[in-house]
Design brief:
Number of domains of chain B: 3
Number of helices of chain A: 20
Oligomer: heterodimer
Radius of gyration of chain B: 29 Å
CATH topology of the largest domain in chain B: Rossmann fold
CATH class of the largest domain in chain B: Alpha Beta
Number of helices of chain B: 19
Distance between the termini of chain A: 72 Å
Strand content of chain A: 15-25%
CATH superfamily of the largest domain in chain B: P-loop containing nucleotide triphosphate hydrolases
Strand order of the largest sheet of chain B: 3-4-5-2-1-6
Shape of chain B: flat
Distance between the termini of chain B: 14 Å
Helix content of chain B: 40-55%
C-alpha cells in the first residue's frame, strides 16, 4: 500500500464508518476503508435492533439524504414495531429487530460492491500530521497511506478495556482488539480525551429457556419501512420476542455483589449512559421498584443466541449465573456469552466543528462513538455528515450543516459541538425544540430538496421521492379547495361517522380537522383519498395538528433571526465588553457559528448575546445598530 | 449606543434633574473614568479607595484655573452601579458650572452618555437584570411615594424572585413530561398525570394573582386618571380646581367655557391622581372648536380609570343627562350632584333612584345599594371638605394596600408576557388528561416558560431591549 494516494481514508467499519465511506465513494471520491476485522463490518455489537424513539427519526432522515442504514435495516427486519402508535404524531418511532448476521453481511456486500471504494483489513496506529493538517494514516506495518481527508470512526476501540467483574482485558468488543496509539497521539496534540463506558447484557442459549414462563410479543402487521425505497412487504419471516421480569431475589443478589461490579468498586473511571443504565444502576437508582421488565430477543433467524434486552451488566460470571436463574423462564439458562462493560476513550466533542472536522487538525474528521455518542443510529448519521463534508471540502463545495429545525441529525451535531458531553449522548425527542415539525412521517418533505442537491441518491430514487412529495401536496391542496355542503345526504353520512352535522359549507380540510373524522371517512363523502399510508398519513397529521404546527413554525421563524446571524470565525471575544470571564472562555473555545448557537452554550447569558451583537453591528456600519436609543 | 469602539469609551452626564439646585451630580463611567477625572481634580490620590469621598477644587485641565469646589466619590471597577469604574462629582447646582465641567470632560475625550446608557451598561455588565433595569426607570419617574416603593422593591429583585420560582416549577414539569415521552417505550411512567395537574394548578394560581395585580400596579406607578364629564355649566371646572387645590381651569357662568381638555395632577395618601376636565357635552353646538373639544372628551373618557359624571343638583337630572349616563360604564363611574349650595331642601335619594331606574345605566349596576352609598355624592364646589370625602371613596379599593408586602406588576410588557404565560399554562392543564398527548402539553408549557423568561430578560430578544432602553433618560 506504500505511496498509494486516496481522496479519503475512513478508519473503522462500524455504523459510522459505513455511512462515511459510502457517502464519499458515492460522491465519486477514491476512498479507502481500513477495518481491523473485515468479518465484522456493520456488526451489531450490542442489541440486534435499529430505531426507537428519535433514533427511528434519524434513520429515516438519513435514508432520504442517501444513507445506507435504513435499507439495511429494512432488508434484515425480523420484527417490526411502531412505538407509541396510539400517541401523538411527533413521538411515534419505528423500531425493528434484525438478524444481526444478515445485517452485517448485507453491509459488507454493499461496501465490497461499491465503486470507488477499497476495503483494507489492517490497523491504524497513527495519523500522518503535517503541522496542523492530517495527510493520512500510518498502518501497523509502518506503511503510510495518504489522503486529502481522513475520517476516524473507531467507536469504543480507542484504548478499549473490557470488564467482567474484576477481570479486565484490552479490547473494544469480545473477539476484537483495542486500537492503541491513536488517542494518545490526539491527546499529545492537545485534544481533551476522556473516558466513557458502556455495557452489554449476556447472550443466552435458546434451548435452555423455559418459554412457557414468558409472554410472547408479536410485531405489527402494518409496516412502514425505514426507506422510501423499500417495499412494505418484509423479506424475512417475522419472529416473536418474549417478555419476562426480574424479581426481588434478582435484585437481592445484585445488591449483595455490587462490590464485584467494576462500576461500583471504582475500577471504571468512565461515565456510563444514564439513559441506558446497567442492571446494577437500575437496582440502585430505582430501589423502590421490585421488578424491571426485560425482553428476550432472538439475534437472528438461524442463530441460537438470545439477547437479554435491558439487563446489561459487568458483574462476574458466577454472579450473572446466579441472578439470571432468578428470572422466570431462565431457571436453567445456559449463558453463551456473559455481559461485560467496555471503557473507552472519546474526544470531547466541543473540539469539533459542525462539519465534524476537528478544530485543531485540518482534514481530520471524527464521527460516531469517538465523539461521545451512544447508539448505532447516532453513529451512522455522524458518519454520513462527516463523509459528505470531507467530500465537499475536497470538491470545493459548501459545508453541509443541517439546522435544528430541519432534522434530528442537526440537533445531535449542534448539541455535541455546542455543549459537549460528559456521558454517552443518546438522542431523545425532547432534545429537539421543534419536535412537532421533525416527525418520522415528513422526512421527505423536510429533506427532499436537500437530498437532490447533495446528489448521493440516484435519479431513480429521487423520482420516487419527489413523486411521493407531490402526491402529498396534491392531496392537501384538494382538501383545501374542495367543499362539502350541508345537503340532507351529507348530514346523514356525517351522523354515521359519527360527527356533528354541518351548519354551513366547509372545506374537506376543515372537516378532517375534527378529531373524530379520519381520512377514510371522507371516502363516504365522495372525496377520494390516496390509499398509500405514505401519502395520506402525513397530510392528515398536518391538517389535524395544523394549529400547533403553525405555532412551532412561528417559534422557528423567531429563532431563525439569530441563526442567520453568522459570527466571523476570527471573532476575538476578549475584545467584547460586557462578557464575563467564563463566557469569554466558553465562546473562545467553542467558537459558535451563529449568534443562535452562542445562545445555546450553557453559561452564556442573554446579556452576552446582546453584547456580541452590538459589538458586531458597531464594527460594521452605523445604520445597522440594533440598540439605538432616542436622542 | 454602539458596541465596539464606542462602547469601550468613557461616558459622562449630569445625573441630577436639569435646572438650578443646591448641588448637581455628574457621573463618569468607563475604564478611564478616574484617569480623566484626575486631570481636572488634581487633589485626587493616584490610587483612590473605592466608595470614598474626596474634597477639592476642580480646575480647567489646561489652565488649571479653578471651576468649582467639588466632592468626588470613587467606585472601583466591578463595584459600581454600571459595573465599570465610576466617578461621581458633586458640584454646585448651577447649569453653567455643570456645563463647564462637562465640556472639560468632552475636551479630554469623554463622550456625553446617551439616553439610558448608564443603566444599559449596568445591564450588560450583569449588575442588574432586565426587570431591575426597568425598575430604575420607574423609580426615576415615580411621582408618588407608593410608586417609588414599588420600584425599589422591584429593583431589589422581588418580582424576579417570584417569577424565578414559577420558572422553576415549569421546568420541573417540562422535564418530567419529557421523560414520560422518552421512556414511554420502555414501560416507565416517570410522573403521574395528577401530579402534573396539581403542579400546573399552582402555577396557574400564582400567575393569575400576578396578572391580577396589574391594574393596581399600574395605578401605583402611573396614578389614577379621572375624567370629569357632564353637560355644560354644571360646574366641572370649579370642581376640578377644588380637587387640584389650584385655579387651573377658567370658571365662568357661560356654558361652553371649557373647550379643550385640561389636565392636572394631585396626590392623596401617597397615590397620584390625574384629573381631566373636558368640554361640556352638548350636541347642539355650532362652534367648531367646541365640537372638537367634545370629541376629545369622549376619547378621554375611554382611556380613564374613573369618570366623574357631574350634574346640577339644583335643576335635577335631565333626559339628556340620562342619555349620556347610558353611555358610561357603572363600574368606573361616580355621580356628583353639584351646586347643593343653591338648594335649601334635603335631597331625596330615592327620587333620584326612581328617576334613573329605567335607564340602561341603572340596569348595568351590579349592586345598587353599594353604588348609591359609595358612588353618588351631593357636593358643592364651595365646600372644601368634599375633596377628602370623594378621594376617600376613590382610594377605597386601594386603601388596605401594603405595597411593601406584595409583589405587583406595573409594567405593560410584564403584563402582556405573563397573561400569555397564564393562557398557555391553562391550556396545558386542559391537555393533561386530554387525548392529545404530552408533547402538546410540553409545547404549551414551553411557550409559557418562554414568556416568563422573556419577562425576566433571560432570553435574548433585541426588540425587547430596544423598547426598554429607549424609555430611559440621559444620565440614568
Amino acid at each position: 500500500m506504500n505511496n498509494i494516494n486516496f481522496d479519503v481514508i475512513v478508519v473503522g467499519a462500524g455504523h459510522a464508518g459505513i455511512e462515511a465511506c459510502l457517502a464519499t465513494s458515492r460522491l465519486g471520491l477514491k476512498t479507502l476503508l481500513v477495518t481491523s476485522n473485515i468479518q465484522r463490518i456493520g456488526y451489531m455489537s450490542c442489541n440486534p435492533s435499529i430505531g426507537g424513539l428519535a433514533k427511528g427519526h434519524m434513520v429515516r432522515e438519513l435514508d432520504v439524504l442517501g444513507g445506507q442504514m435504513g435499507i439495511a435495516a429494512d432488508e434484515t427486519t425480523i420484527q417490526y414495531k411502531r412505538l407509541n402508535s396510539s400517541k401523538g404524531p411527533a413521538v411515534r418511532g419505528t423500531r425493528v429487530q434484525n438478524d444481526k448476521h444478515l445485517y452485517s453481511s448485507f453491509q459488507k456486500e454493499a461496501l465490497l460492491n461499491q465503486e470507488n471504494l477499497t476495503v483494507l483489513e489492517g490497523e491504524v496506529k497513527r495519523l500522518v500530521l503535517d503541522k496542523d493538517i492530517c495527510r493520512g494514516v500510518v498502518l501497523q506495518d509502518g506503511s503510510e497511506i495518504h489522503a486529502k481527508a481522513s475520517i476516524i470512526t473507531t467507536g469504543t476501540f480507542m484504548n478499549g478495556v473490557m470488564h467482567i467483574g474484576l477481570k479486565q482485558e484490552s479490547g473494544g468488543r469480545v473477539g476484537d482488539k483495542a486500537s492503541i496509539g491513536l488517542s494518545d497521539q490526539l491527546a499529545e496534540f492537545g485534544f481533551e480525551v476522556k473516558r466513557l463506558k458502556t455495557g452489554t447484557p449476556a447472550r443466552l442459549l435458546k434451548d435452555s429457556i423455559d418459554w412457557s414462563k414468558t409472554i410472547p410479543q408479536a410485531g405489527d402487521e402494518k409496516v412502514y419501512p425505514f426507506s422510501y425505497r423499500s417495499s412494505d412487504k418484509l423479506k424475512l419471516p417475522q419472529i416473536l420476542c418474549y417478555l419476562t421480569r426480574t424479581t426481588e431475589s434478582t435484585h437481592d443478589i445484585i445488591r449483595g455483589n455490587l462490590d464485584k461490579s467494576p462500576m461500583y468498586c471504582g475500577l471504571i473511571e468512565g461515565v456510563g449512559p444514564r439513559y441506558c443504565p446497567s442492571i446494577e444502576d437500575k437496582v440502585t437508582r430505582f430501589s423502590d421498584r421490585d421488578s424491571h421488565q426485560t425482553f428476550l430477543e432472538p439475534e437472528g433467524l438461524t442463530t441460537d443466541l438470545i439477547y437479554l434486552q435491558g439487563i446489561s451488566t459487568s458483574l462476574p460470571e458466577d454472579v450473572q449465573d446466579q441472578f439470571l436463574k432468578t428470572i422466570p423462564g431462565l431457571e436453567n439458562v445456559k449463558v453463551a456469552r456473559y455481559g461485560y462493560a467496555v471503557e473507552y476513550d472519546y474526544v470531547e466533542p466541543s473540539q469539533i466543528w459542525h462539519r465534524l472536522e476537528t478544530r485543531t487538525i485540518n482534514s481530520l474528521f471524527l464521527a460516531g462513538q469517538i465523539n461521545g455518542t451512544s447508539g448505532y443510529e447516532e453513529a451512522a448519521v455522524q458518519g454520513f455528515v462527516a463523509g459528505v463534508n470531507a467530500a465537499h471540502r475536497i470538491l470545493g463545495r459548501e459545508e453541509f450543516i443541517l439546522g435544528r429545525d430541519e432534522a434530528y441529525i442537526g440537533v445531535l451535531i449542534d448539541d455535541l459541538v455546542t455543549k459537549g458531553t460528559r456521558e454517552p449522548y443518546r438522542m431523545f425527542t425532547s432534545r429537539a425544540e421543534h419536535r412537532l415539525v421533525l416527525r418520522e412521517d415528513n422526512t421527505i418533505d423536510r429533506l427532499g430538496v436537500l437530498a437532490s442537491k447533495l446528489g448521493i441518491v440516484s435519479s431513480a430514487s429521487l423520482g420516487i421521492l419527489s413523486a411521493l412529495h407531490e402526491k402529498r401536496m396534491l392531496l392537501h391542496a384538494r382538501l383545501k379547495e374542495t367543499k362539502v355542503y350541508p345537503t340532507k345526504d351529507v348530514q346523514e353520512l356525517l351522523l354515521k361517522i359519527p360527527t356533528t352535522a354541518l351548519t354551513k359549507s366547509l372545506s374537506f380540510e376543515e372537516l378532517l380537522r375534527r378529531p373524530e373524522v379520519s381520512s377514510f371517512d371522507l371516502e363516504a363523502l365522495n372525496f377520494s383519498v390516496d390509499k398509500d399510508a405514505n401519502v395520506f398519513e402525513p397530510v392528515e397529521i398536518e391538517v389535524k395538528y395544523s394549529g400547533y404546527i403553525r405555532r412551532q413554525q412561528e417559534l422557528i421563524e423567531q429563532s431563525k433571526r439569530l441563526e442567520e446571524l453568522l459570527l466571523p470565525p476570527g471573532l476575538l471575544y476578549s475584545e467584547i465588553r460586557g462578557l464575563s470571564n467564563e463566557e469569554r472562555d466558553k465562546l473562545q473555545r467553542i467558537k459558535p457559528r451563529t449568534l443562535g448557537q452562542a445562545q445555546r452554550i450553557s453559561g452564556v447569558n442573554p446579556s452576552a448575546i446582546q453584547a456580541i451583537m452590538i459589538h458586531l453591528k458597531g464594527q460594521k456600519k452605523l445604520k445597522d445598530v440594533v440598540v439605538e436609543p432616542a436622542p | 449606543m454602539l458596541r465596539g469602539d464606542r462602547d469601550k469609551d468613557t461616558i459622562c452626564a449630569i445625573s441630577t434633574p436639569p435646572g438650578v439646585g443646591g448641588i448637581s451630580v455628574i457621573r463618569i463611567s468607563g475604564s478611564s473614568a478616574f484617569n480623566f477625572t484626575s486631570k481636572v481634580c488634581r487633589f485626587l490620590p493616584t490610587s483612590p479607595e473605592s466608595h470614598r469621598v474626596y474634597f477639592g477644587n476642580l480646575v480647567h485641565a489646561s489652565s488649571r484655573e479653578p471651576i468649582d469646589e467639588v466632592l468626588v466619590t470613587y467606585f472601583q471597577n466591578g463595584r459600581s452601579f454600571t459595573g465599570e469604574e465610576v466617578v461621581e462629582i458633586s458640584c454646585h447646582g448651577s447649569p453653567i458650572i455643570c456645563q463647564t465641567i462637562l465640556s472639560e470632560f468632552a475636551i479630554l475625550g469623554v463622550r456625553p452618555a446617551d439616553r439610558g446608557e448608564f443603566t444599559y451598561r449596568s445591564f450588560i455588565n450583569g449588575k442588574i437584570d432586565l426587570i431591575q433595569a426597568e425598575s430604575v426607570l420607574s423609580l426615576i419617574e415615580s411621582q408618588s411615594q407608593q410608586s417609588a416603593k414599588l420600584a425599589i422593591r422591584q429593583l431589589k429583585g422581588v418580582l424576579s424572585n417570584r417569577l424565578e420560582a414559577i420558572e422553576d416549577k415549569m421546568t420541573w414539569i417540562l422535564a418530567h413530561a419529557e421523560a414520560n415521552i422518552d421512556f414511554s417505550s420502555e414501560g416507565i411512567q416517570v410522573v403521574d398525570d395528577h401530579i402534573v395537574k396539581e403542579k400546573l394548578s399552582v402555577i396557574i394560581s400564582e400567575l393569575t394573582s400576578l396578572v391580577d395585580t396589574f391594574r393596581l400596579g399600574r395605578v401605583l406607578k402611573d396614578g389614577l386618571s379621572v375624567v370629569l364629564t357632564g353637560l355644560p355649566n354644571v360646574g366641572k371646572s370649579s370642581l376640578l380646581n377644588l380637587f387640584l387645590e389650584d385655579d387651573r381651569a377658567i370658571v365662568t357662568d357661560i356654558p361652553g367655557t371649557t373647550r379643550d381638555v385640561i389636565k392636572g395632577d394631585t396626590s392623596y395618601k401617597g397615590l397620584k391622581f390625574t384629573f381631566v376636565d373636558t368640554a361640556g357635552l352638548r350636541d347642539d353646538t355650532t362652534d367648531l372648536v367646541e365640537r372638537i373639544g367634545i370629541q376629545r372628551s369622549y376619547e378621554a373618557q375611554s382611556d380613564s380609570d374613573a369618570v366623574f359624571f357631574i350634574f346640577d343638583a339644583s335643576s335635577g337630572l335631565s333626559q339628556e343627562e340620562l342619555v349620556i349616563l347610558d353611555s358610561l360604564e357603572p363600574s368606573r363611574t361616580y355621580i356628583l350632584g353639584n351646586k347643593t349650595d343653591k338648594i335649601a331642601y334635603n335631597i331625596d335619594l330615592s327620587a333620584v333612584k326612581q328617576l334613573m331606574s329605567a335607564s340602561k345605566f341603572y340596569q348595568k349596576i351590579q349592586d345598587t345599594d353599594e353604588f348609591f352609598k359609595r358612588r353618588m355624592f351631593f357636593v358643592s364646589a364651595l365646600d372644601k371638605n368634599i375633596r377628602d370625602e370623594v378621594f376617600k371613596e376613590l382610594v377605597h379599593e386601594f386603601s388596605d394596600l401594603q405595597v411593601s408586602n406584595i409583589v405587583l406588576i406595573s409594567n405593560a410588557r410584564h403584563f402582556e408576557n405573563l397573561s400569555r404565560a397564564l393562557e398557555n399554562a391553562r391550556r396545558s392543564s386542559e391537555l393533561v388528561s386530554g387525548g392529545l398527548g404530552f408533547e402538546f402539553l410540553a409545547l404549551e408549557l414551553k411557550e409559557a416558560l418562554i414568556a416568563v423568561q422573556e419577562t425576566l430578560g433571560k432570553r435574548f430578544d433585541d426588540q425587547i431591549m430596544d423598547r426598554v432602553f429607549k424609555e430611559f433618560c440621559i444620565g440614568k
